[in-house]
Amino acid sequence: MQAVATINDNYVSQNRKNEDGSTTGSASVIDQNNETYYEILDDSNWEEWKLKYINLSVAKGEYDLMVTDLGDNIFSFPLFTQKFCDEAVALAEGLDRWTIDRHEHYPTNDVLLQDIGLNDIYNRVLNEVVRPLAIHLWKLEGKQWDAFSCENFMARYTTTRQSHLSIHHDRSHLTMVVKLNDEFTGGGTWFPNSKKLVNPKTIGTAVLHPGMITHRHGARPIEIGRRYINVSFIRSHEEP
Questions:
Q1: 146-170 pLDDT, tens digit each
Q2: What's this model's pTM, rounded to 2 decimal places?
Q3: Which domains can be identified in the chain, with CATH numbers?
C-alpha cells in the first residue's frame, strides 16, 4: 500500500479536541503540497512497519508468555503499540467517514477500515499474527484456517451519540476487539453468561473470543469521554 505523500522533515504531531472535552491520540502526519501523509498507511517496508506498530513478542510467537486467559474462552494479549492506536484514531477522525446504520440489528457509530485505507494492513496483521495465535489457543485444524476472512471496523462510543451496545451475538467464528484509547470512564465488554466484564487497562490490548452462539455480549455505557475500539468479525477462509 502506498502512502499519499513522500516522507520529509515536516513532522507534525496532531491532537484533536472533541466536542465532549476528550482528545484523540496524537498522530504522526506530514503535510506536503497540501496532501497529508499518514505514516500508519505506509507499509512499503513491512518489517519496519511491524517494529513501529506491533508487539514484537506476540509477533514472534511468544503466546504462552504474552496471552492472558480471562476464563470462558476469552483471551487478551498486547497486539498494537500506542503509536498504532493514536494514529489509527486520528486517521479515522481526520477522514470523518463515520456511519451510524451499517448493522441492521445492533448498529454502532463506526467506520470500516477499508474506508480509511487501513484494511489491507489490518488483514495482514490478523493473518500473520492473530491467526497462528488462535490456532495455538484452540488447536484449530483443517485447511479452512489457512487464512482469515474478516470484517474490520472502528467503533466510537460517546456520551452524546451512542454510549453502549445492547447484548447480542456476533456473526463470526471469532471476534477480536482492540482498545485504542483510554480517555474515557466506564465502558468495557460485558459477557452475561459468565458474568464477566472485560475492560483492558492498556492501550493496544486485543481481546479474542468465540462468536456465533456461545458468547453473547454487549458494550457497557461510557460515562465520560470517548471510547474507540477496533472490531474484527473473523471467519475461517472456507466453511468447515
A1: 999 999 999 999 998 888 777 888 8
A2: 0.86
A3: 46-236 (2.60.120.620)
